[in-house]
Write a structure and sequence with these properties.
Blueprint (H helix, E strand, L loop, with lengths): L4 H26 L6 H8 L3 H7 L3 H12 L2 H12 L4 H18 L1 H16 L13 H16 L7 H21 L8 H6 L6
Helix pairs in contact: 1-4, 1-7, 5-8, 6-8, 6-9, 7-9, 8-9
Length: 199
């Protein structure tokens, strides 16, 4: 019995989603320059021609993956956290817990963290000290740090550099998640301690 039009559409959508998810992991591990379409197709488990049915070029595929990696959901979640009427200390602990839970459970989240960081440094407009920290993620984290410094529960220092240090540690553990099979994940307390004063 032939497949219905709806089922054919579902299969196309499932295949497209698989290509995007698997490609995100592959690009995060190999970078744009280190990715060949033939190797990527083998990794996904489809023919190279099938991949080209869904995406015209490596650039088009990567562009869509980058858009997914820069999903506004994470930014919106962080904006909501910043607006909560609680101390910066509690916000930082909540953020750290959320990040580590997702890193422990989700390879795609780890790939998003890795891709975002890699792309931030590959973009030409991030080449100078003045423009390195234009990421919404960094700027929102900076706001949280400034709040905590006013409250006296966050360490002293340039807030944007502290945000960079915090996300640099997250990036390191995202890479460990992607590249190693045996590693010990940092604890929520250790990640929060990067920004919080000792009690």
């Amino acid at each position: 019995m032939p497949k219905s039009q709806e089922r054919c559409q579902e299969i196309r959508q499932e295949t497209r989603s698989k290509i995007l998810n698997d490609s995100m992991l592959y690009f995060a591990k190999n970078g744009f320059a280190g990715t060949k379409i033939s190797d990527l197709a083998k990794y996904i488990g489809i023919g190279q021609g099938t991949l080209y049915i869904y995406f015209k070029s490596k650039e088009e595929l990567f562009s869509e993956i980058f858009a997914l990696a820069n999903s506004s959901k994470e930014i919106e979640d962080l904006k909501m956290l910043i607006r909560l009427p609680i101390s910066a200390k509690k916000k930082i602990r909540k953020l750290s817990k959320s990040i580590l839970t997702r890193l422990n459970q989700d390879d795609i989240y780890a790939a998003k963290v890795a891709l975002n960081t890699q792309m931030m440094f590959e973009q030409k407009d991030f080449a100078s000290a003045e423009t390195t920290y234009q990421s919404d993620l960094y700027q929102l984290t900076e706001k949280m740090i400034k709040q905590g410094q006013k409250e006296g529960n966050v360490v002293e220092g340039f807030p944007m550099k502290l945000a960079d240090y915090y996300w640099g540690v997250v990036y390191l553990y995202a890479l460990k998640r992607l590249f190693t099979t045996r590693y010990e994940m940092i604890s929520e307390e250790d990640l929060s301690r990067i920004l919080l004063k000792d009690e």
